[in-house]
Amino acid sequence: MGIASLIIGIVSVVLGVIPGCGLIFGLPPAVVGLILGILEIAGKSKKNEPKGMGVAGTILNALAIVVIIVWTVLLGAAAKETAGEFEAVMEEAKEQMEEMQEEMEDGTSEEMQEAIEKAARAAEELAGQIAAEAERAAGEAAAEIREGVAEAEEAVEEQTDTE
Question: Residue 7 class from Cβ within 10 Å (0-12 exposed, 13-18 middle, 19+ buried)?
């Protein structure tokens, strides 16, 4: 059970850092691996045998669960932020379209062409701003995940070194 827990923990940590994959394919095995690791530790403690594999498996599976939860929360927050920005952009585009409509009703064909070009430039600029913000938010989320994984790996190494 200890080896199974360890292997499941390794696979779950790897799946946990893949966006969208961890929640579906990483969390259920991580929970099973955590249970196996705890059972291994309890069984070996009664027999007074070494329980390193069970401890390592338990730590890895717990780490995988934490990584999956953190990654899911960060991705959800980034998606929510991006959705809010998208709605704002759509509202601004709607306002510009209304302004264009008014200009078209009141203006000449030359003025209409200028209004269309103005709206196209504004739409391109807004799309660029949204893309830059989404990229920034995703980069920050990925950096936080990497830091958490590095800290967890250090904790696992410290735990295995003490045994």
Answer: middle
**pLDDT greater than 80 at residue 155:** no
Domains in the chain: how many in total?
A: 1
Highest mean pLDDT among 53-62, 93-102, 121-130, 147-156: 53-62
Structural domain containing residue 44 = 2-162
Residue in this structure with the two tokens 């830059």, named with its chain if needed: 132
Lowest mean pLDDT segment, chosen from 14-23, 47-56, 58-67 = 14-23
DSSP secondary structure of the chain: -HHHHHHHHHHHHHHHTSTTHIIIIIHHHHHHHHHHHHHHHHHHHHHT---HHHHHHHHHHHHHHHHHHHHHHHHHHHHHHHHHHHHHHHHHHHHHHHHHHHHHHHS-HHHHHHHHHHHHHHHHHHHHHHHHHHHHHHHHHHHHHHHHHHHHHHHHHHHHHH-
| 64's tokens | 């995988």
* Cα–Cα distance for residue pair 44/48, rounded to 1 Å: 6
